[in-house]
Amino acid sequence: MLSGAEKFAADNKNTYGAFASLELAQHFVEQNDLPNAEKQLQQGLAAASDDNLKSVISMRLARVQLQMKQADAALKTLDSIKGEGWTAIVADLRGEILLSKGDKQGARAAWEAGVKSDASPALSEMMRMKMNNLSI
């Protein structure tokens, strides 16, 4: 069944293929097969035409890249996300990525920017807690 889904995702360069790639990527993450998850997300990104769908896929891709210790690639992926509605969540993940690189000041700056943006109260509070946990 998995190979059929992979074939469908590869053969359909449209929204359906992008959604199939998202589902496959989730399966691979659950199996801790991050390289295949990354491959599916890249494929889904290429198939997607809607900006919000591209942003969702890019967020997931950046998280997978972070798990694979590819911080620079994850930051580059985040840079591709545009749109006001994404500012806070991108800032939160950017802070996590920068912290993984040992850049505490960069992480703090990212989280501060996120708090000042359109963040939900819960996300703002989470970013404040992350800043408070930094020892700088």
From TrEMBL:
GO cellular component: plasma membrane
GO molecular-function terms, A-Z: protein-containing complex binding
Pfam family, one: TPR_21
Keyword Cell membrane set for record: yes
Major subcellular site: membrane
Domain (Ancillary SecYEG translocon subunit/Cell division coordinator CpoB TPR): residue spans on this chain: 4-135
Keyword list, A-Z: Cell membrane, Chaperone, Membrane, Transmembrane, Transmembrane helix
Listed InterPro entries: SecYEG/CpoB_TPR, TPR-like_helical_dom_sf, YfgM
Keyword field contains 4Fe-4S: no
Localization per record: Cell membrane
UniProt membrane topology term: Single-pass type II membrane protein
Assigned protein family: Belongs to the YfgM family.
Name of the molecule in the record: Ancillary SecYEG translocon subunit
Organism name: Klebsiella pneumoniae
